[in-house]
Amino acid sequence: MKRTIEKPNKVNHKIYICLISLFSGTLMFSFFISAGICSTLSDIIKNLSYGCVASTVVAWIIDCATTRNLNRKANSIYDAVYGELKFHIGAFIGTWAELCVVSFKEKDYQEEKHTWNDWFKIVKENYDKCTPERQAHLLNFFYRQLTEAEKAVNKSIDYLQSQRYMLTLNDVMNDAMDRILSDFRFEFYALDLDLSRKDTPEMFWSHMDAITSDLLRYIQNWPDIRYYNHLLFRPHNFFQNTNDLLAAVLISDYVPATGGKKESLICRIKKHLK
């Protein structure tokens, strides 16, 4: 699984390469100094060059080890900081599967697996087939469940926004991450307004269509959760099946590189995971 901010600390290899090249050049020069008085100078230069090369190599090794440890720490902080938001976004989009299995018991959806966008479409299709009386009842239920999930996302976003300065100091906030958070903040604040107004059914579904389309794009833009768009899951089981999660991660990483041949890739991955 990828991170938007991966290994923020870097070793400046060019400096070490330049220093080793310089000291090696000085060492080679000492071999061409003629005998006599220059012999003593040659020995001094050789000893200094050997010492400088050795010291540079040791410093390079220590710098690499220190940077590796700093990156491990930074990655751990990153995962901890954004873990809650990632969970709540997954819980929100997973709500469509839960709405489906609870609202439309005429069919057993409990064992079916779909992506979250397909679950949304299934809920909408089943809703359209219901009587007006049942639609009114279902819509109130949808409003309650979606509002609860949406408020959890907004709470996580608000907290992250309030900690932007500290996050930047700890190398877990940059321009790319700021844009990602801004996109989700705008979308879920708009969703909060839509859900609080409780418009007509036509407006509700129009807003949900637009928000679903936007969320597909914003999730795709965040490497950490890009696999959400490809995850096949059962109701109440968004984060549970390891094989499904692994397959979704692999698909999200390699589908763009395969020219969009998603179906054949899914078959190969599922066959490998069995």
Characterization of the model:
With 274 residues, the chain is mainly α. Helices cover 74% and strands 0% of the residues. It has nine helices and no strands. The protein has helices at 13-30, 37-103, 116-128, 132-162, 164-169, 175-197, 201-221, 242-254, 262-273.
What's the SSE blueprint?
Elements: H1 13-30, H2 37-103, H3 116-128, H4 132-162, H5 164-169, H6 175-197, H7 201-221, H8 242-254, H9 262-273
Task: Indicate the multimeric state.
Answer: single chain
**Helix content range of the residues, please?**
over 70%
Tally the beta strands.
Answer: 0
Q: Mind describing the biggest β-sheet?
A: none
Beta-strand percentage range: under 5%
Average pLDDT across residues? 84
Tally of individual helices:
9
Secondary-structure-based class equals: mainly alpha
Distance between the termini: 20 Å
Shape: elongated
Low-confidence stretches: none
- Give the helices and strands as they follow along the chain: HHHHHHHHH
Q: C-alpha Rg, in Å?
A: 28 Å
